[in-house]
User: What shape does this take?
Amino acid sequence: MIFKPRNLRPIAQMVVGDVPHFHYRSSYYITLFFEECEFDYAHDGSSRVPWTQAVLTELLADPQPNANQLPDRFATVLRVLMDKREAQDGDDDRLLALAALNVPLMREGFEGFYGEDGVFYVRHIRTMTVSTPVNIYRPLTPAEAENRELLIAYLDKCSEDELIAEILLPMFRHLGYQRITNVGHKDKALEYGKDVWMRYKLPTEHVIYFGIQAKKGKLDSAGATKSSNANIAEIYNQVLMMLGHEIFDPDNNRKALVDHAFIVAGGEITKAARNWLGGMLDNSKRSQIMFMDRDHILNLYTAHRLELPKAAQPAVAQPWSFEEDEAPF
Assistant: This one.
């Protein structure tokens, strides 16, 4: 990734404290700053801003987690720089410092913000992808726990098409997948066992294709399957069908086979179903088949702070008003 010099230089000035609302750092404290970031950079006594700008340029040259995220080390520098404990007089909540940093960031398509935990994050403005490494198993804030319960209630009542359109498509789009195409269920002859196909561009510019076979309820391995559940063997056969049929990518006008497949369940994937599927994958060496259940979906949605579907959001109370012909007293 490359930032324009006119955008990178102001960030370097903020690191060394040559602008308002940021701590002034001499040569010694610039070295301490990068030590706090856990980087091995020691200031060599040269001009502080050009030296710091050169370091930031080197950090931006690191591999990106995906096309819409800053390199991890550069994001770490910004997070340490914007630590609320570094607040200056007259800017206790660091909103003035945040506004100053967002000027060069926004020109590069990014935006800084403070999360509910008080930690600084950077997100891509167009896709809202957060650049900070995400831990999907971290403890939840009260607001995140509430959103998780709302999403559980939505998953209990939504249809399979709603699961795909309102949950899976926004989630995979946020995670950096491209050309997400919802095949749907209108024409079974064209589905070939897949509900969604999409592609993912690697840092090397190679493209790999994914298919999704989604089911609303629980996946089990019982011989007699209840109407609300789906049998893992049936899903596995549909995935094999998916991997054997081509898709057409209109962006490059060519057909391609699906490289990897997701089996996604809006409910639980039972232990027996996991064991059966694991045995089949071991026997056939099909490393391209992956699966995720409700808990995995909930963890991804919560950790990435994705917006809930409108039908899952709590109703907003309408302000009370008098009718035109009704007196207030």
